[in-house]
Write a structure and sequence with these properties.
mainly alpha; 82% helix; single chain
Length: 288
């Protein structure tokens, strides 16, 4: 049997990174499971159903401006390691520009999206909060993509844990304050928790970028390189299409299940309670 010490530095970094990401991913799933339990006891099954109906909108935005670009950044930087910083700057400019546009559109047309797309007007107050979180998500996704590209996965791994822990702490503190002040706890609690988690992850990765830079010796370049943008987007666009289709299907599921439950005879609150139990409690425990 080959020991880790006998592997090449590149293979060793890959193996340790895989183990670290797997471990932190499992830890985040466990924390997320208890987080869902806490949410179910504070905002209820119906509240979870409404929140899970809003969340796919964020998933669509993330697929367009962050997830695909993160993967493209890691692949392109890994292939052109000396130009890593230039590629990262180009990617983050593109990603942040798209994220701000999407955030503006969500905030501006929240009522339309809730009524005409999600077919649930109660979702309107939560959409702007989800929209504001999009630039934060795009920011830390690009930084994580940079670290993945240079095979330094410790920052992305620990940023996941930090995001989950801070989100849980923020939601607990907000819920405690609202209960102490007599404020009714609504789905807004989960929306604020999502925003705080994304913002915390963005701050964490930004600090790591300056304290533990991915590269020290790189080819200097400007903020945006046209020569880099074309191949980067050539990698990102197919991934973007794939993730967009998956998130559109999730959105369709979020819309159709409550509506079909209502067509079967359930009232609106009952339909969302059943949907909340399914997507917020049963499925995360079984497959996520």
């Amino acid at each position: 049997m080959i020991s880790i010490s006998e592997l090449s530095p590149k293979k060793r970094a890959f193996l340790t990174g895989t183990i670290l990401l797997t471990s932190t991913g499992f830890a985040c799933r466990v924390l997320g499971f208890f987080y869902r339990i806490f949410l179910s006891r504070t905002i209820g099954a119906e509240g979870l159903g409404v929140y899970n109906m809003v969340h796919p909108i964020f998933g669509i935005c993330f697929a367009l401006c962050a997830g695909s670009i993160q993967t493209a950044l890691s692949q392109h930087i890994a292939s052109h390691i000396a130009r890593g910083r230039s590629i990262f700057r180009t990617g983050i400019v593109i990603s942040m520009t798209m994220s701000f546009v999407l955030a503006f559109l969500i905030c501006r047309h929240a009522q339309f999206l809730a009524s005409a797309v999600l077919m649930e007007p109660r979702c309107a107050p939560f959409l702007p909060i989800m929209g504001i979180s999009v630039p934060f998500a795009a920011f830390h996704a690009c930084i994580n993509g940079y670290y993945y590209g240079v095979q330094k996965s410790h920052v992305p791994a620990f940023s996941q844990v930090a995001e989950q822990i801070i989100r849980m702490a923020a939601v607990f503190l907000i819920a405690s304050y609202w209960m102490a002040s007599g404020h009714t706890i609504t789905v807004m609690l989960a929306a604020y928790g999502h925003l705080v988690g994304e913002a915390a992850s963005a701050v964490f990765t930004l600090l790591c970028l300056y304290l533990f830079p991915p590269q020290t010796e790189v080819i200097s370049a400007g903020l945006l390189s046209p020569d880099t943008a074309a191949p980067l987007m050539a990698l990102a666009l197919p991934l973007m299409g794939n993730r967009l289709v998956l998130n559109l299907l999730c959105s369709a599921e979020a819309i159709w299940i409550p509506s079909r439950l209502q067509m079967s005879g359930l009232k609106s609150d009952q339909a969302f309670a059943v949907y909340g139990v399914l997507t917020g409690m049963a499925l995360p425990a079984g497959v996520k």
